[in-house]
């Protein structure tokens, strides 16, 4: 405190005395008693005292002795004579000493003191009290009086019926004195039993306790204070200052306890974050471990329904099971970054997760999960296409095999027949022509047999689960086909031998047989085509089928003419046989076909045409719907995709720190997060359209470059980038506020970092970081010592040895160069104060000075003191303090 305070206050006091001429008698009495007690509290240290303050200081001897005791300095040797000038000389030596301490005395002379002037003597003693008892009281850079008043207000704030506003009436009921005692020594009195209505009892209780237990003499009289309308301010200030100095040691212990509480609170929070990180990491890695085998399983029950069930399980995984894990992973990274930032700011060593739980290992496990997802979905879609193709081919194989087996039924027995040996020439010729027609029919069926074999071969290639039955049936058909070929050749040779004997031929029957057989084959082929099943994936493919069908319908007119022409041959045979009564003339020896058979087949064929039209139109409508789904997905995907890319660029730009203050960036990022969450319905619409496409077996889309998988990955990257950038900005704010960095400094650090971050990735490689340090004025030599210094700095900013420097690490290094933090030595000094300068501390000391939770935290973790002379239960606070900062093996 500036001593001018004393000069100013004393001058105001002198002017007040000159105005009033006489001191208020009540105040004079209170001051005289209080100042006398105050002087005796110091003089007793020298083995003496005074009884009458205006008489005992007249010779100056006890006045000089008082100044020596309270200042701790030696005054000039006093004059021992009894003459008046000896007394004046001694008093002048005392006054000179007071003025040498920076106090200017006004209107106080040695003569007035020697003459026993009470007012001047009290003024002189008040000046001494101000200089040596009150001046050293300092609270938040206030004056001594204001600081002492603020100290009283803070200490008595929690107590009822106490409101300290001055040093007069606020202490009149005695509760303020009792509150000060109870605040520092609650064991000395029970404040809850005190009443504002008993001021005399309160005052006497406080004075007696202070004198008995606190070594503060009784300087005030309770009756004088109670009976005085306004107690003397200087008397009460003098007495309260004794309380302040008495409890100064307790104040120092409280400060030490606050420092320890602060350090322990930081350590407890760090341990909580470490435990939460370990728990989240274990849970996430365990989930990935359990999920990977399911995603790596490439087995189905070889049915399309089973594959669709597996696809539905995968959809459920992507929609319900994975999103919470994405959030858990983001929270894990956020907690880790926050923990490392807090450890750096509090001077603790960097946190290293337990084996297998490093952030890099979690990211590696997550990437393996995403790789398994991509492979699983690709495999599943491919498997569904394969099973769909297999199902179609199996049905087609059975259909063609049934037609072929129906056609070959009885053919072997007919070819082995020897019926021609008992026939007439006409009958033999008929048999020969019939056999020629059969050969034509056999050749026409060759294509169907080849199709059956090709389908069986494709089913083998696709791995159909019941391919054995397919192969067995195909082999039977092929073997039978070979036997039919052999038998056909043998019968043709036999008929040629018989033809040399029988030469008459019925040309009309032969003409019918020749024309009816191809027409019948055409009918059967057309019917098979009309009943043939198909699978298409685009409008163009179904349009090609419709065009082919329309071309087929265009040929029906010519086919109708051919049918009528063939039937006319039969009608002509019937006319001639009826006209000439030819025995057996209606039987055609060359073919088993009749006009009725052809008629029924022709009518069946014409009835299949409109049915085929309906099937094709139904499929065309389905493909139009699929095309609409493709366009809907593409239209929305071509909006959502660029939007996600734009938002990623915005987040990246904000993260570069070029868009206002950190608070502005944080607001922008939170706004960005709100915008992203509000945009979520667009992704849900895409998921709905994508599900409809998959249910419709749509696997490609030529209208957009975006797939649902790429949009999901982009969305997850956007959410993760926003969370990570918010965390980085919050950590930067935490660093700035805890280190006291100005916004201009932070802007300069960010500009330097961005200048050397050429690729705008938010990290500096060692070469870029060295250049950045050089630009900021650091001397980095190219010799061996310079490299050692640089590696030391790299170890500080990159404790996890990732090979790059983040802006958080760079900012932490730059602020650490100019700020200071709590150290292990400071914590040890704080514990030493609580322990009363002992090398150990007792549990009861910790419980008395610290909050209960932090006291128990210390007792549980603090090792036993192993030194000599310590009582049982003594704790080693030095090892505990160094362990907090990673400086021991504790």
TrEMBL record:
Molecular function terms, GO-annotated: actin binding; calcium ion binding; protein-containing complex binding
Cross-referenced InterPro entries: Actinin_actin-bd_CS (IPR001589), CH_dom (IPR001715), CH_dom_sf (IPR036872), EF-hand-dom_pair (IPR011992), EF-hand_Ca_insen (IPR014837), EF_hand_dom (IPR002048), Spectrin/alpha-actinin (IPR018159), Spectrin_repeat (IPR002017)
Keyword annotations of the record: Actin-binding, Calcium, Metal-binding, Repeat
Classification via SUPFAM superfamilies: Calponin-homology domain, CH-domain, EF-hand, Spectrin repeat
Pfam families, per the entry: CH, EFhand_Ca_insen, Spectrin
Source domain of life: Eukaryota
Family from the record: Belongs to the alpha-actinin family.
Role according to the record: F-actin cross-linking protein which is thought to anchor actin to a variety of intracellular structures. This is a bundling protein.
Record protein name field: F-actin cross-linking protein
Organism in which the protein naturally occurs: Cyprideis torosa
């Amino acid at each position: 405190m500036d001593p001018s305070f004393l000069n100013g206050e004393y001058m105001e006091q002198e002017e007040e005395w000159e105005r009033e001429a006489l001191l208020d008698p009540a105040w004079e009495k209170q001051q005289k008693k209080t100042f006398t007690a105050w002087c005796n509290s110091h003089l007793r240290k020298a083995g003496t005292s005074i009884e009458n303050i205006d008489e005992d200081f007249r010779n100056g001897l006890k006045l000089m002795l008082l100044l020596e005791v309270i200042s701790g300095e030696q005054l000039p040797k006093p004059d021992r004579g009894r003459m008046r000038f000896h007394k004046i000389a001694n008093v002048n030596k005392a006054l000179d000493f007071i003025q040498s301490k920076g106090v200017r005395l006004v209107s106080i002379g040695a003569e007035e003191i020697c003459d026993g002037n009470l007012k001047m003597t009290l003024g002189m003693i008040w000046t001494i009290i101000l200089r040596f008892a009150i001046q050293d009281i300092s609270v938040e850079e206030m004056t001594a009086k204001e600081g002492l008043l603020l100290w009283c207000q803070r200490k008595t704030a929690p107590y009822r019926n106490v409101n300290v506003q001055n040093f007069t009436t606020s202490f009149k009921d005695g509760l303020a004195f009792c509150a000060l005692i109870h605040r520092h020594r609650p064991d000395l009195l029970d404040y809850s039993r005190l009443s504002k209505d008993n001021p005399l009892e309160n005052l006497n209780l406080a004075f007696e306790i202070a004198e008995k237990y606190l070594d503060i003499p009784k300087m005030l009289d309770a009756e004088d204070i109670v009976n005085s309308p306004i107690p003397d301010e200087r008397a009460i200030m003098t007495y309260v200052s004794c309380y302040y100095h008495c409890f100064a040691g307790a104040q120092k212990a409280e400060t030490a306890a606050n420092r320890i509480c602060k350090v322990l609170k930081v350590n407890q929070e760090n341990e909580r974050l470490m435990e939460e990180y370990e728990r989240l990491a274990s849970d996430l890695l365990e989930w990935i471990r359990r999920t990977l085998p399911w995603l790596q399983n490439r087995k189905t029950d070889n049915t399309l329904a089973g594959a669709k069930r597996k696809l539905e399980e995968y959809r459920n995984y992507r929609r319900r099971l994975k999103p919470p894990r994405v959030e858990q992973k983001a929270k894990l990274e956020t907690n880790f970054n926050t923990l490392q930032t807090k450890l750096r700011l509090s001077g603790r060593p960097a946190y290293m997760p337990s084996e297998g739980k490093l952030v890099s290992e979690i990211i590696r496990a997550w990437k393996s999960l995403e790789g398994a997802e991509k492979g699983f979905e690709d495999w599943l879609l491919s498997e569904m296409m394969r099973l769909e193709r297999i199902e179609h081919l199996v049905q087609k194989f059975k259909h063609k095999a049934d037609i072929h087996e129906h056609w070959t039924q009885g053919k072997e027995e007919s070819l082995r027949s020897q019926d021609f040996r008992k026939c007439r020439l006409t009958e033999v010729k008929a048999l020969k022509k019939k056999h020629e027609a059969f050969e034509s029919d056999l050749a026409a069926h060759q294509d169907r047999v080849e199709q059956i074999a090709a389908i069986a071969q494709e089913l083998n290639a696709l791995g159909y689960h019941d391919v054995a039955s397919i192969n067995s049936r195909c082999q039977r058909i092929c073997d039978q086909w070979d036997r039919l070929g052999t038998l056909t050749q043998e019968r043709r040779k036999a008929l040629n031998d018989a033809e040399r004997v029988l030469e008459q031929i019925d040309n009309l029957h032969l003409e019918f047989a020749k024309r009816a057989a191809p027409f019948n084959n055409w009918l059967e082929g057309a019917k098979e085509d009309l009943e043939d099943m198909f699978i298409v994936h685009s409008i163009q493919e179904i349009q090609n089928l419709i065009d082919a069908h329309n071309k087929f319908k265009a040929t029906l007119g010519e086919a109708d003419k051919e049918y009528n022409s063939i039937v006319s041959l039969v009608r002509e045979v019937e006319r001639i046989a009826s006209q000439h009564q030819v025995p057996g003339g209606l039987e055609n020896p060359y073919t088993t076909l009749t006009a009725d058979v052809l008629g029924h087949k022709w009518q069946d064929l014409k009835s299949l045409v409109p049915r085929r039209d309906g099937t094709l139109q139904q499929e065309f409508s389905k493909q139009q719907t699929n095309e609409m789904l493709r366009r809907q997905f593409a239209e929305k995907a071509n909006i959502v995709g660029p939007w996600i890319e734009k938002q990623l660029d915005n987040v990246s730009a904000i993260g570069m720190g070029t868009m206002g203050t950190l608070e502005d960036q944080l607001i922008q990022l939170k706004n960005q997060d709100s915008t992203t969450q509000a945009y979520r319905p667009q992704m849900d619409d895409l998921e709905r359209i994508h599900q409809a496409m998959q249910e419709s077996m749509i696997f490609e889309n030529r209208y957009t470059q975006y797939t649902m998988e790429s949009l999901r990955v982009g969305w997850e990257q956007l959410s993760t980038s926003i969370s990570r950038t918010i965390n980085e900005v919050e950590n930067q704010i935490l660093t700035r506020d805890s280190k006291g960095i100005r916004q201009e400094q932070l802007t300069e650090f960010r500009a330097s970092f961005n200048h050397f971050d050429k690729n705008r990735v938010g990290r500096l490689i060692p070469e870029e970081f060295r250049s950045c340090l050089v630009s900021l004025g650091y001397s980095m030599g190219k010799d061996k010592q310079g490299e050692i210094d640089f590696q030391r700095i790299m170890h500080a900013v990159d404790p996890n040895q990732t090979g790059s420097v983040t802006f958080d690490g760079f900012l932490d290094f730059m602020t650490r160069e100019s700020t200071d933090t709590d150290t292990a030595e400071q914590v040890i000094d704080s514990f030493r104060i609580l322990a009363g300068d002992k090398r150990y501390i007792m549990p009861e000391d910790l419980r008395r000075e610290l909050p209960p939770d932090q006291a128990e935290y210390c007792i549980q973790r603090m090792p036993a003191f192993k030194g000599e002379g310590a009582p049982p239960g003594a704790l080693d606070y030095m090892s505990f303090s160094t362990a907090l900062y990673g400086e021991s093996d504790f």
